[in-house]
Amino acid sequence: MRTAAMYDAQQAGDGTGDRADQAGDGPSRDASPGIWRHLVAPTPEAAVAAATRAVLLGVRDRLAAGADRVTVGLTGGGAGSAITRALGDVADAPWDRVDLWYGDERWVRVDDPERNDAVARDVLRRHPDGIGRARLHPAPQPAAGSNDPDVAARALAADLPDRFDVLVLGVGPDGHVASLFPDRAWAVDPAADAFAVRDSPKPPLVRLTVSMAMIRRSRRVVLVAVGAAKAAAVRGVLAGDPALPAMHATGVESTLLVSTA
Ligand SMILES: O=C1O[C@H](COP(=O)(O)O)[C@@H](O)[C@H](O)[C@H]1O
User: Fold this and answer.
1) What is the DSSP letter of 72?
2) Which residues form the Glucosamine/galactosamine-6-phosphate isomerase domain (predicted)?
3) Interface ipTM
4) Which of the listed residues 116, 224, 244 should we mutate to test ligand 1's pocket, taking the one with most ligand atoms within 8 A of CB?
5) Could you tell me the distance, in angstroms and rounded to a whole number, from the CA of residue 7 to the centre of ligand 1?
6) C-alpha of residue 144 to centroid of ligand 1, in Å
7) 161 CB under 6 A from ligand 1?
């Protein structure tokens, strides 16, 4: 069985230039009214710290603007998990006014360590007086009697906020964000806020993901691309390669790409 790590290793050797013909009909980055910024961090740790600060700033700014609660989307993967752990180390944030979701989830049982939200559940449990006061909204899991990912995606869509105030998205080596992969149908249903992916090139095959439309309604998007394996994807995003989902992942107010290359 191919694992997610094997997939990443294979992707690290891939260029992205040969995908220009996959452009599809998704929205272009230029269409976004948001401000787009790229921060090159000297180390992975610095990248995680910068992304973590951006999330906290987004939470504080939203509350300062008068919101009762703040909606935050987290991401799985290496850097995403490190950001979630770093957020857990921040005790003095207004966590009791924060709702947390994941931008995508693997279609596995909630006790499976492959779940993206396994990290958040662990972090919330460890910090009951800090981030443990936030409300985590787990995506549906396969269960006896409700094993249809399409039904689950509709339930997820119904549980999602109107928009994320802050959405963190890891960038895969192939330029994927959430579970929206290049060469896959990530732009076909712009009306859906979430849908099921049944042919993920990165295991597991079946996932639930927010849509590009949902991503692009976010107030602030923080894209994180850490490590040499992501360098080609970062170059592609900077070059505006429309085949890369990450290139389209912009926020309404701002978009920050944090990378190490
Ligand atoms: O499978 C996934 O991969 C991406 C990127 O992960 P990374 O380890 O390459 O940073 C992640 O953002 C997504 O949530 C996850 O499901």
Assistant:
1) E
2) 44-250
3) 0.97
4) 116
5) 11
6) 27
7) no
